[in-house]
Amino acid sequence: MRTKRLSPLGFLMECLNIQTVSLSRELHVDASLVSKWKSGDRSLNSNSMYFEDIIRFIMKVSEKSDHQLLSKALSEIYPLEGLESSASPEPFVRKLLFSEKLTLPNLKEFTAPGIQPKIQIGSCEQNSGRRHAVLKLLDYAETLPVPGRIIFIDSEEYGWLLEDEAFVRHFAEKMNVLLGRGFSARFVIHFSSYRQRFVRFFEMCNLLLFHRNVEWFYYEYYDENVFQFSQFILDKAISLLGISAGQDNSTTMVFTDTPSIIRHWTMAESVISRCEKLFVNFPVEKCADVVEYIRVIRKRGTLYAYLPAPAFVSAQSELLSEILTGNHIDPATTDQCLIVNQRMRDIVHTQFKGLEDAPERIVQILQLEEMERRAFRTPFISCSLTLLGGRQVNVTKPQYARCLRSLADALDKHENLEIVFLSEGDNAPLPAIPEMNCWCKQNTWMVQMDQKGFRLSDEASIVNAASVTFERCIRRIPPKRKEKSSVTAYLLQLADTLERSGV
């Protein structure tokens, strides 16, 4: 395969997508001269009367992307110079233009230490080929010494991914490992008018949906077209472009040259800028505002709570006040916690009363093993109160027992309240995430609470998908862990055990 000869100027022009004619017009010179500079057939040095004008033009074009594209390109040449955090890339532009000619080969395949991907640049046919290419992209990412960024854009609601159940679980596991290493990712979903696939996507990839290192975006009302488009990019390393014309006719092209990857990244950023965020993030101090927002929305539907253990933030106010006082939480913070508690209890009260006095269903899904681990762990730390209190908040065993007895009383008093115990062996479509609480009002909103604050979504597709997944999870739980009599007996038995064990 022929290589493409480029001078340092030509390399920058390729990376910034500067057309020969644009530079020739800016300098008022013939385009053929710029072409010779670009290929290196004619030298360009600091003594040239056009040298400073060229640098100014490059910097002017680069400003359109806040120098991100230019910094990416230069970091390929000077990887140890900390370009992405540099105040201005101009000194490196000058340094590069003083350099010798660069030769950028069109690589036949991309490789990484320890792996030998067998993907040829040009095409990977059908959905199985696309999955293979994506897997190699993730394999490559695993070899990188420094965590990078990954973009996934798909206009087919990830149908190519979901048609192979074993692969999608493997994909989610590999992505979760990369995210745990510090990688960040952005996923874009182009919804069709029916949004049928997203329920399955949520069921199989919810661990990624809940992960804080992933930003989710969506584009609504994506009409059916002849061609479908997909784009997957690993920062500075690999770009995959996919085109489909029906389920059985797709191709995926692999690129490893820096100019192409930078242009593709720019295109992806442009797509993302036109999309909506699936979640809105809020810091801890905005908790009261988030709860107030969801409290005033009145719409019929089941209220789900997916919790590793009973959340003390919604416990009885007297018990909450006692816990906060015992942990020496300052009065102002205590008052804020009580405000949040009252608003959350209002949501539950409204659910019990319902529209036109018709009670609406409430379901608490508690993670059985995690709840038991916390019951006998010393000290027992309330995650929700620790988050709101700004410091570790401990709960005594008698206080935990009172919370469990309160749940048992409410279960006996309210016909529309359900408490179910999800076990790790249930093979349910929900991940066990001990550090996260999640509340969801069917078809209305979903709130995730963790150590970083709150994520709120009122986008219909994800809320509906979450509701369906919660229901499927509940159906897989055996009767003995969701019938009221057995659940009440277990809560009271655990409360007795805690009270006997003391503080």
Explain this structure to me?
The protein has 503 residues and is an alpha+beta fold. Helix content is 46%, strand content 18%. The chain has helices at residues 8-15, 20-27, 31-39, 51-62, 68-77, 90-97, 126-143, 159-162, 165-180, 196-209, 258-273, 287-295, 317-326, 331-353, 368-375, 383-389, 397-413, 460-476, 484-501, and strands at 4-6, 102-104, 124-125, 149-154, 184-190, 214-219, 228-234, 238-244, 250-255, 276-277, 280-282, 303-307, 362-367, 380-381, 394-395, 417-422, 437-441, 445-450, 453-457. It has an 8-stranded mixed beta sheet, with helices on both faces. The protein has a 7-stranded mixed beta sheet with strand order 11-19-18-17-12-13-16, with helices on both faces. A two-stranded antiparallel sheet has the order 1-2. Helix 1 crosses helix 3, helix 9 packs parallel to helix 10 (196-209) and helix 17 (397-413) runs antiparallel to helix 19 (484-501).
Q: What labels would you give this structure?
A:
seven-stranded mixed beta sheet, alpha+beta, 19 helices, eight-stranded mixed beta sheet, 503 residues, 19 strands
